[in-house]
Specification:
Oligomer: single chain
Shape: globular
Number of strands: 25
Radius of gyration: 22 Å
CATH topology of the largest domain: Purple Acid Phosphatase, chain A, domain 2
Number of helices: 7
CATH class of the largest domain: Alpha Beta
Helix content: 10-25%
Number of domains: 2
Length: 418
C-alpha cells in the first residue's frame, strides 16, 4: 500500500507539472468602451489569462506590456453584444442588463497625499473607500459610474506620520493598486464599469496608469499617456449616458481653444444618442459650489459653461460629476440637473454649501436641490417608472443609509422626499 501511494503521489506531481500554469489574475472586470463592452484583466504572468465567452475560448489581447513602474501585464477582450457569460480563468464577470434600473455613482475615491495634505490612508475612518466599496457593491447596481479622480498619492508621506506611513507615491502600479484596485475590488465584480477621466488622471499626474489600465480607448504603442478621447455613448436601456473627458478643462492652454473644443463636443452629443433622454458623465461639474459665502461662489467651470451655451442639447437631462469633494444635486431653470458625487474617499470639502437653492452660479440660478458636506458616501439612481425620465436619487453614507432623497424628472428636482 505505501508503494502504491507513493506511485500515485508521483503521478499527481507529473500531471501538475505537465498541466499549463494558470495565469495569476490579480484583477478582472468589465468596462464600457466606445462601441460596446470590454473585459480587462491584470496579471503578473507573461501571457494573458484564458477567457471564455458563452463557453467558447476567446483569447485576450495584450493592452499594455509590463515596465519598471508597472510590472504587470494588462489584457483586454471585446465582448459581443448579447453575450450571456464571460469568464476569465473560470471566474464569471458581470454583464449588462438590457435596462439599467439601479445606477451607482461615485467619485474622488483615492487617498490624498501631497506636500500640504496627508490623508491617513492607513485609517479606514479617515479614508473609508475600502469599506465603502463593500457597501456600494451591496446595493446590487446594474452599472457603476466612477466620475473620476482615483489616483491621489502624489508625494511621500511626511516623516513620523503614522497615518500614511509606508504608502507608495507617484504614477506607479503600487499606487494604482493601493488607491483603486485593492480597495475597490468589490466593485469590479458587482457590475460593469463606466470610467470617467478626472484631473488627477491627466498626463502630468496619474495619466500613465490611467492610460494603461482604465482609459476606454485603445492604448497606442509607445504613447505612454493618451490624450483626451472623444465622447462616446453607453446604452442603458432607453437612456443614453455620454462620457466626456473634461479632465483638463480650465487648466493650462488657451481658454478660447478649450471652449471651441468643448463646444464641438457638446454639439456632437445628440448624434451619439439618436433618441431618448441623455445624461452626461464628466468629471468637472459645469455649475456647482465648493464655496458659497457673501455672494461669492467658487467651484464652477467657466470654459465648460461658455462652451455649453447654445450647444447643450435639450435632451440632456442630467450631468454626473465629481471633482468637488461633496454631494450636491442642483436644478436650474433651463439647464440639466447637475449631480456632484465627489465624496467617495478623498478628504472632504467642508466649505461646500448644504443650502443651495437661490445660489447664482455662472449666471444660472439654482431653483431646487440640496447638498451635504463633510460626509463620505455615494449616490444611487433608481428608475421610478417604466420609462427613462423619472428617477429616485439617494445620497448614501458608507453605512448605506440614505441621507438625502430627491425625485428627478427630466430637468427638475424635488428633494427632501422619502
Amino acid at each position: 500500500m505505501p508503494g502504491l501511494l507513493r506511485a500515485l503521489f508521483a503521478g499527481l506531481i507529473l500531471l501538475a507539472a505537465a498541466a499549463p500554469a494558470q495565469a495569476d489574475v490579480l484583477y478582472a472586470w468589465t468596462q464600457y468602451v466606445p462601441g460596446g463592452l470590454e473585459a480587462r484583466a491584470i496579471t503578473r504572468q507573461a501571457q494573458c489569462p484564458q477567457a471564455r465567452i458563452d463557453q467558447r475560448a476567446s483569447p485576450m489581447r495584450v493592452r499594455a506590456e509590463p515596465n519598471g513602474a508597472f510590472p504587470v501585464l494588462v489584457c483586454a477582450l471585446a465582448i459581443p453584444r448579447g453575450a450571456r457569460a464571460v469568464e476569465i480563468e473560470g471566474a464569471a464577470l458581470p454583464l449588462p442588463r438590457a435596462r439599467a434600473d439601479n445606477i451607482l455613482v461615485l467619485g474622488d475615491t483615492g487617498c490624498r497625499v501631497t506636500r500640504l495634505i496627508n490623508q491617513s490612508c492607513n485609517d479606514p475612518a479617515d479614508w473609508p473607500f475600502g469599506a465603502g466599496a463593500k457597501t456600494e457593491a451591496g446595493t446590487a447596481p446594474d452599472v457603476i459610474v466612477h466620475v473620476g479622480d482615483m489616483h491621489y498619492r502624489e508625494t511621500p508621506c511626511r516623516p513620523l506620520n503614522e497615518g500614511c506611513a509606508n504608502t507608495p507615491y507617484g504614477d506607479t502600479w503600487a499606487v494604482w493598486e493601493s488607491d483603486f484596485f485593492a480597495p475597490g475590488r468589490p466593485l469590479l465584480t458587482a457590475a460593469p464599469l463606466v470610467m470617467v477621466r478626472g484631473n488627477h488622471e491627466t498626463c502630468g499626474r496619474g495619466g500613465k496608469g490611467w492610460s494603461r489600465l482604465l482609459d476606454p480607448y485603445p492604448l497606442v504603442s509607445g504613447a505612454g499617456c493618451l490624450r483626451p478621447g472623444a465622447p462616446f455613448a453607453v446604452d442603458l436601456g432607453g437612456l443614453s449616458l455620454v462620457v466626456m473627458d473634461v479632465s483638463s478643462a480650465g487648466e493650462g492652454g488657451k481658454l478660447e481653444a478649450q471652449i471651441a473644443r468643448f463646444r464641438a463636443q457638446f454639439g456632437s452629443v445628440e448624434g451619439l444618442a439618436p433618441q431618448g433622454p441623455i445624461w452626461l458623465a464628466m468629471h468637472r461639474p459645469i455649475r456647482a459650489a465648493a464655496i458659497a459665502a457673501l455672494g461669492f461662489v467658487a467651484g464652477q467651470n467657466k470654459p465648460l459653461a461658455l462652451a455649453s451655451q447654445n450647444a447643450m442639447p435639450a435632451r440632456v437631462a442630467a450631468i454626473l460629476s465629481g471633482h468637488i469633494h461633496t454631494f450636491q444635486a442642483l436644478a436650474y431653470k433651463d439647464s440639466p440637473v447637475q449631480l456632484v458625487s465627489g465624496h467617495s474617499g478623498a478628504e472632504l470639502h467642508w466649505t461646500a454649501p448644504n443650502d443651495v437653492t437661490g445660489l447664482v452660479i455662472e449666471g444660472a440660478e439654482v431653483v431646487a436641490g440640496t447638498g451635504r458636506s463633510g460626509v463620505h458616501g455615494f449616490v444611487t439612481l433608481t428608475r421610478d417608472g417604466p420609462g427613462a425620465d423619472d428617477w429616485r436619487l439617494a445620497n448614501r453614507s458608507f453605512t448605506g443609509k440614505a441621507l438625502d432623497n430627491c425625485r428627478m424628472t427630466k430637468r427638475k428636482l424635488a428633494c427632501g422626499m422619502q
